[in-house]
Amino acid sequence: MGRANGMGETETSSPPHTFGLPIPLVRIRGVFDTLPRSERKVADYVLDHADEVIYSSVTDLAQALEVSESTVVRFCQRLGYQGYPEFKILLARDLGTPFRDTYDTLDPQDDVATIVRKTFQMSIQAVNDTLAVLNPDSVREVVNLLLSAHHVFLFGCGGSGGSAQIAYQKMLRLGLPCSVCTDPHTQTLLAGMASKQDVVIGISYSGNNEDIVRTMRVALERQAKTVAITNYPISPLAKMANVVLLTGAAETPLVSESGPSRVVQLAVIDVLCTYYLLRQRTPDGLS
Amino acid sequence: MGRANGMGETETSSPPHTFGLPIPLVRIRGVFDTLPRSERKVADYVLDHADEVIYSSVTDLAQALEVSESTVVRFCQRLGYQGYPEFKILLARDLGTPFRDTYDTLDPQDDVATIVRKTFQMSIQAVNDTLAVLNPDSVREVVNLLLSAHHVFLFGCGGSGGSAQIAYQKMLRLGLPCSVCTDPHTQTLLAGMASKQDVVIGISYSGNNEDIVRTMRVALERQAKTVAITNYPISPLAKMANVVLLTGAAETPLVSESGPSRVVQLAVIDVLCTYYLLRQRTPDGLS
DNA sequence: ACGAAGATGAAAATTATTTCCTGCTTCTTT
DNA sequence: AAAGAAGCAGGAAATAATTTTCATCTTCGT
Fold it and tell me: B223 in helix, strand or coil?
């Protein structure tokens, strides 16, 4: 009901027009030579400032170019569009979403919106980088360990303690018998109680945290299965681990705790839990 | 010679003033739950018929939906656009982009590498979505609060407790006087000690956690400045907050604790810390 | 149940777009 | 080189689209 009556009403709303050539920029170049003087002015401007034009009205454009509005409209119609609005829409489609300054660095002069965008972009970049360095085989290996684990210990200090905490909550909800500890002393004590059937996951961005390394060494001595989540494959922590899950967060110039290092830890944890869940549901042997 | 005069105002026409990325579809999903009935109708239709909408006028759309034109315009403005035309243009750009949201669903048949890729992709998508719903003005507001805060309290329960923990570590290193608490009872006690000059940040994905809401209410009564980090703008937590920082993680079909909900919390926290640092370094007055 | 806050649509006000008309230029033809 | 034809350009009127205002109605919280 809604659709039928609404559309047929006005002639201007004809849905499927200009099927043939919806590519304004190309078409402009095609007819450029045949355009009269004023319209050529319009064409020039549009080709140069397409991303401004799509936000301008006929009047804006006409004024900027010092031509009449009629000229702009005629220009659009000559190109084959019904009028200026249609031209603008197609131009916008043609342009696509601007992702221009994605990789640039933070500038104190930037306004908040830009800071936000750039910071988020860095997180995304870090996740992508992690995708590149994280070995899927290691993921499978760890999930295999988790599936047969009697108990899972999660250890992290400082910021990584937060990641451990989050991992703990996720795993709890997956039905994994697990515990978390962010206190260095207690960690070591707990690790001393780990058995061969247990999995000990140590999290440290730098892989250099003494407490975690010590804890992992203890776990290793107890023959527990040790897993490291770290950014550095040759770190002391990585040496203590049976399996290493590598993150790929770039160093940040600001402060050590700043930047997306935690984001990627969580991304890795998320993968573990997701894959665990899938494996739990389907009988083994796949993948 | 004629060039000089027209330029000053016209050329600027309207640099898209919208914050974040101009991704209408994501933004619609972000605010969908907060929309009134009629506007939700519009949202539904736009999500379903985006490629027709870009050729329709307000009148067309209003008729097709059997709502008033005012509603359509209000809908666009609520989304943050100046009006319908701007919305339409941005929508068109969005559509034009070839690789839009890749909501690849997980398939138990996938091999590990694919699972990893898809899971990471979901995190990236969530960060992008958050970029679309997070209001930079709110970020600035919160950082202003932080800059003049006597003390910052960070509260979260469960998984969000981990996020709070990470935020605490980051802020500590920025020299912010702060404390974190993940125990419901103690939280409330602490909040009862907050003063007018303090900032209380409550983190909860759903915004429904009773403990956090209670804690925030106490903080509000103490006239502390309250900040919420949540995915739901109309949640009880959001109501208790002077400023709301919105995340944009899509619901995940798996488990509540799964998915990138934590990742985006961290991304938001990261932005806070980054911008705080920049502001700290440069004398005020910018942006 | 009552009041306040908010949602909705009708219509008015504003703004944008298109058409129409006129004067002008340019090109062609002689 | 001059006259006519063709068609271009701009102003203004006409039309259409968009936004605001305002009165009414609904809903939510107390």
Answer: coil
- Phi, psi of B195, deg, nearest 5: -110, 175
User: CA of A214 to nearest chain B CA: how many angstroms apart?
Assistant: 22
CATH of span A112-281: 3.40.50.10490
The fold for domain A17-95 equals Arc Repressor Mutant, subunit A (1.10.10)
pLDDT value at B67 more than 90: yes
Terminal C-alpha separation, chain A: 49
d(CA A61, CA A65) in angstroms, rounded, equals: 6
In 10 A of CB B118, how many CB atoms? 18
Of A85, A77, A74, nearest in space to A38 by CA: A74
Strands B199-203 and B152-156, sheet pairing: parallel
Confidence of residue A96 (pLDDT cuts 50, 70, 90): low
Substitution target from A134, A271, A284 for chain B, most B beta carbons within 10 A: A271
**Rg of the Cα atoms in chain A:** 29
Residue A283 near residue A277, CB atoms below 8 Å: no
B20-96: CATH topology is Arc Repressor Mutant, subunit A (1.10.10)
Angstrom distance, B16 CA to D4 C1': 51
Please state the domain extents for chain A: 17-95, 112-281
- Report the pLDDT averaged over residues A174-188: 94
B233 secondary structure, DSSP code: T
The architecture of the domain spanning B133-281 is 3-Layer(aba) Sandwich (3.40)
Q: What confidence tens digit (pLDDT) does each residue in B190-199 have?
A: 999 999 999 9
d(C-alpha A223, C-alpha A240), whole Å: 11
In this structure, are residues A249 and A131 in contact, taking their beta carbons and an 8 Å threshold?
A: no
> For chain A, where are the E strands, in sequence order?
152-156, 178-181, 199-203, 225-230, 243-246
Closest approach of B6 to chain A, Cα-based (Å): 5
pLDDT in tens, A124-140: 888 988 888 899 999 99
Burial class (CB in 10 A: 0-12, 13-18, 19+), A27: buried
CA of A153 to C1' of D24 (A): 63
Kindly tell me the sign of the dihedral angle through the C-alpha atoms of A122, A125, A127, A130. negative
Q: Residue B111 corresponds to which tokens in the numbers above?
A: 């091999």
Query: Dihedral sign, CA of A207, A211, A212, A217?
Result: positive
- In one letter, which amino acid is A73? V
Q: Which residues pair with A244 in a beta bridge?
A: A228
Residues in chain A, overall count = 287
pLDDT confidence of residue B103: 52
Q: How many angstroms is C1' of D14 away from CA of B38?
A: 34
Q: Pseudo-torsion of CA A21, A23, A24, A26, nearest 10°?
A: -100
Using a CB–CB cutoff of 8 Å, tell me whether A8 touches chain B. no
